[in-house]
Amino acid sequence: MQRLNVDPKKIDTILVTHHHSDHSNSALRASKKWGCNLISNAETARRLEWEGTARLKIFSELERIDAGVDISLLTVPVPHDDAENVAVIACDSNGKRAAVVTDLGEVTAELISHLKNCNHISIEANYDHDRLMRGGYPDSLKRRVSGRGGHLSNYQTAKALQEIVHPELHSIVLCHLSESNNLPHIAESEVLMGICDSFDGSLSISKQEGPDFSNWIGQSNPERIVA
Q: Of 9, 123, 182, 217, which has the highest C-beta tally within 10 A?
């Protein structure tokens, strides 16, 4: 947020997609410190022992949530091991939509139907299949990563985006790239191969150490950040 010049005290809502630590650490502490609402589904709240927490709101599947003065959030269930994970689609008062989709092993038909209406999409391209299979992970972990409850490969993301791309989709951000089983140029090239004939917006990579650009709803071009 510091790199994006976002004042955390102006945040209205923190949505936690699932209980895994890389997606939930510090959320409760941040909510208390900044005085903003904390929202999750019931299973996530239970696993994190948040029941009874002040400012906690529980959402249900496919529930539209008012998250601020001019923004609402729609949560879409996605398959992920040992978690009730959700993708999140934000919509502003002008009907512009942006989605964040990570930690899933399969892009469901339901999710695709919602993403077809988005103007900005941030979606994981976690691993290159060949690098994963040739790498040093134990076979059990390879099966978990590549299974329905694992993560999306570059190929899976490219195939999903082929169905999703439409004229009003302005930007795609590839995120959650594995440091062990992927490289930015591999993810970018495989996705571009799949959508280059139908997509003329911006394609960017979100790095592990943090963003070097922003995509706000209603923004025509990504705003580059000089670190």
A: 123
* CA 78, chain centre distance (Å): 11
Residue corresponding to tokens 């103007």? 119
pLDDT of 217 over the 80 cut: no
What is the reported pLDDT for 216? 60
DSSP per-residue string spanning the chain: -TTTT--GGG--EEE---SSHHHHTTHHHHHHHHT-EEEEEHHHHHHTT-TT-TTEEEE-TT-EEE-SSSEEEEEEE--BTTB--EEEEEEETTS-EEEEE-S-S---HHHHHHHTT-SEEEEE--B-HHHHHHSSS-HHHHHHHHSTTS--BHHHHHHHHHHH--TT--EEEEE---TTT--HHHHHHHHHHHHTTT--SEEEE-BTTB-SEE--TT-SS-EE---
Contact at 8 Å (CB) between 133 and 160?
no
Kindly list the domain boundaries of the chain, sorted by start residue. Answer: 96-214
pLDDT digits (tens, 9 = 90+) for 129-149: 999 999 999 999 999 999 999
